[in-house]
Write a structure and sequence with these properties.
By secondary structure, this protein is mainly alpha-helical. It has two domains: 154 residues, Ribonuclease iii, N-terminal Endonuclease Domain, Chain A (Orthogonal Bundle), CATH 1.10.1520; 83 residues, Double Stranded RNA Binding Domain (2-Layer Sandwich). It has twelve helices and three strands; from the N terminus they run ααααααααααβββαα. α4 crosses α8.
Length: 259
């Protein structure tokens, strides 16, 4: 064990946690290599069982969050988002931000080979911490611990997920869920030839889904698709509310597929 290992009470301060029984937290930082080298009797156990539990709890809390935030995403889309949120690199980064490596109890070999900063080890330890929080204080404490981290990460993940333009994303959803292709129609053209403004409506199976305005038909169509995504409860960072436009062209409720 390194002489530089910090006391777990410091971790509580860094992470904003309070353990009723600090033995759970201490166990979260015990690597198997440490237990393999220790000779004297000890109450310590390695963190692998807590890691197992924490992995399951993390999956549940993340799934629950995505289920509530995106009511119209498919099972496959939710699964992809969850995988992006809880991948090893992300959890290792969370662990790094919390200085998890400073608290690890490692065997000499693991210490000398860089185990204190190894992503796989940091990821596993972070999951063990989640398991410890769950055992000590329950699911609500886990949610409180994870929510700000997952929400911040979701913003980054969403940017990647939204790399496709709104028309492409809407077409994928409409074709998958309704089995039809969205149609775009210019319903209003305003302004002189050199400064045209187009209003475009997107429909699916003759049912209006969104409306948009732009300096070109393509820009207006992208805006209409962004509105449609927003109305469907799908991620649409490009959507900008236009109350005047929506008041001029009110849309009926969406024609959503039945479960």
């Amino acid at each position: 064990m390194s002489a530089e290992v910090r006391d777990v009470a410091e971790f509580e301060t860094i992470a904003g946690l309070h353990f009723n029984d600090k033995r759970y937290l201490q166990s979260a930082f015990v690597h198997r290599s440490f237990m393999n080298e220790i000779e004297e009797e000890t109450e310590l156990t390695d963190n692998e069982r807590l890691e197992f539990l924490g992995d399951a709890v993390l999956g549940f809390v993340t799934s629950e969050m995505l289920y509530r935030l995106f009511p119209n995403l498919s099972e496959g889309e939710l699964t992809n988002l969850r995988a992006a949120l809880v991948r090893r690199e992300t959890l290792a980064r969370f662990a790094g931000e919390l200085k998890v490596g400073d608290f690890l109890l490692l065997g000499h070999g693991e210490e000398d080979s860089g185990g204190r900063t190894r992503p796989a080890t940091l990821c596993a330890t972070f999951e063990a911490v989640i398991g410890a929080v769950y055992i000590d204080a329950g699911l609500s404490a886990v949610r409180e611990f994870l929510a700000p981290r997952l929400e911040d990460e979701l913003e980054r993940v969403a940017v990647v997920a939204l790399a496709k333009d709104p028309k492409s994303r809407l077409q994928e959803w409409i074709q998958s869920e309704l089995g039809v292709t969205p149609r775009y129609k210019t319903i209003v053209t305003q302004g002189p030839d050199h400064a045209r403004v187009f209003t475009v409506q997107v429909t699916a199976d003759k049912h209006p889904y969104g409306i948009g305005r732009g300096r070109s038909k393509q820009e207006a169509a992208q805006s209409a698709a962004a509105m449609a995504l927003h109305r469907l409860g799908l991620p649409a960072l490009e959507y900008t509310p236009a109350p005047d436009l929506e008041a001029e062209h009110p849309l009926p409720p969406l024609n959503l597929p039945q479960p």
